[in-house]
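Justification of resources, computational component.

The compute hours requested in this renewal are based largely on the per-chain cost of generating structure records like the one below. Each record pairs the submitted sequence with a full structure-token output. That output is archived, and it is also reused by downstream analysis tasks.
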Amino acid sequence: MSLENLNCLGGPPEFQNPLPVGQLYMPSWERYENSMRDIFCNQKYTNDGPLLQHFEKKLAAFLDVKHVICVTNATFGLMIAAEALELSGKVLVPSFTFIATALSLSRCGLEPVFCDISELTHHITPETLQKAYIPGVTAVLGVHLWGSLADVHGINQWTKRNNLKLFWDSAQAFGCKSNDHRKSEYSDVEVFSFHATKIINSSEGGCISTNDSSIAKKLRNIRSSYGSGEPTLVTKKSNTQMSEFQAALGILSLEDYSKNINHNASIRSVYSEHLSTINGVSLVPLYGISESNQQSIVITVDETVFGLSRDTLYRALHKENVIARRYFYPATHNTPEFTQMPNPNLPNTEMLLKQTLLLPIGSRVSTGDVKKICALIKLIGAKGDEITKVLN
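The structure output for this chain reads:
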């Protein structure tokens, strides 16, 4: 590989096939085919079927919680979680997150109040929550990112002191532990995603976990127009059931969990070794965890040291079929859905939005691919001025 061979300087792409940031772990065809055959033999396709019930029991045991309720996707999970918690008024939420986090609140008639995050960990803290707190706030919707965890204990204590409910968008944190314990004890409800970009994949889908039996009863009755389990009074119904097909794929994915995170851990190790030699590029460590699901590889780019901006590096990598992603871009508070709201003061969020970049990980990425990606980043940085002129 030489600088002249970079695609943005006229050479062919380094990778013939695109390398994504999503996990994209799939079971073998034989295992999948057997699961599908069982569904057709049982002739039960949805509405709290036997595979869904089995999947929920396996998830509850894995997450060490009393109740798991599977849903169509995590966005619906957040919405019906807010409804089951009977929230009203304003909810504190970080802007540094996927837009669906905040939209789930507004679609439930709640007002998101955006708060800043730690520059170091990329998560909310008791201090950032306190700075954003205003009268009318009734709850906190926290977000765990990258396979790391926020300060679950400290934030739980802060919400209790302020008499607020706490629930978590844990879409990226399935399986993560804090001090060798699952984090469910530190909140009312958690919502997980089983999208293809996540470590557990059920072809979309997600789940809600809780240790509160009364909340679980509401969730099961909100989840479908029929409800399931013991009936209880709820103000809304929905159609957010997970199908038997999704449940079958989720069960197989859960069986492969340890194998898949071990592969991701080996990828992280190679990234860590090779990125450490590149000035101006830093691999974001995993924070707040005793066990990570190895969800993401995130770097920050210091333009003054590296020689070109995060956005220019992003474009140059895409030319090589390295499909890096700018999470989260644009900031949630700067999207059309929320620009009518008062502009919040979020200096750490604004800074990280210009610096962070996700690099490929998951089933389609080998350790050899990682070495090439790191070599590309180093080469791109060495020709910063020339590449900036070509791509900007």
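The first strand starts at residue 67 and ends at 71. The radius of gyration is 22 Å.
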